[in-house]
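To whoever is on call:

I kicked off a structure prediction for a single chain this morning and the downstream step that reads the tokens threw a length-mismatch warning. I double-checked the sequence; it's 239 residues and nothing unusual in it as far as I can see. Pasting both halves so you can look.
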Amino acid sequence: MTTTTLSKVERRPFDSLGHADHGWLNARHHFSFASYYDPARMGWGAIRVWNDDQIAANSGFPPHPHQDMEIITYVRSGAITHQDSLGNKGRTEAGDVQVMSAGTGVRHAEYNLEPETTTIFQIWIEPSRKGGAPSWGAKPFPKGERSGQFVTLASGFEGDGDALPIRANARVLAATLKAGDSVDYAVGEGRHVYLVPATGAITIGDDAFGARDGAALLGGQTVTITAQEDAEIVLVDSE
């Protein structure tokens, strides 16, 4: 009898991701989403969605509903303007992050009001508890503060300081690494980590990852991430 051992580091190349081009929106899906369905990529732990979106100038997502989901938007270039049924409105620029806890239900719109294409990662994490009043928040995180290390952008854990709060046992982190620099990351037992280089090229151990490739990491290991060229990395650590 043979047994199959799951790789502790799985590469998901950019060109293998789900793809939908709506004209105004050119989207890649790391996990099954909308018309893209792959039973092997339904999520990773509590991470349900990781979309790599390019939104054309002066276009965007009209008002639509969400419920019981933590929705994190990491702006890679350009800016996104948010408006929701709670009366919140804000513009989030490149390198910054916004978080919406959908809770019992909220309607929101996301528009690129800029004269250029905006690129974002939109990440959905299943909450550790359902319900609760919906909320929204955004925050600038100067990239200099991430130089050579991971900085927590959003967190469901007390004691994570200035991180935006989410209602999940998860953290969203980002780092910038200069070519040749390395950073270690410990993945706890039972945890699920997914990371994407927004820019640049990296290795995780002996495995090479290009810009916008995905890396799924199983719990119970410490990995060494090395930049082969200047890189900006977004990482989610979830149940």
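Update from on-call: the warning came from a stale cache, not from the record. Cleared it. Sanity check on the structure: Residues 1-5 have pLDDT under 50 and may be disordered.
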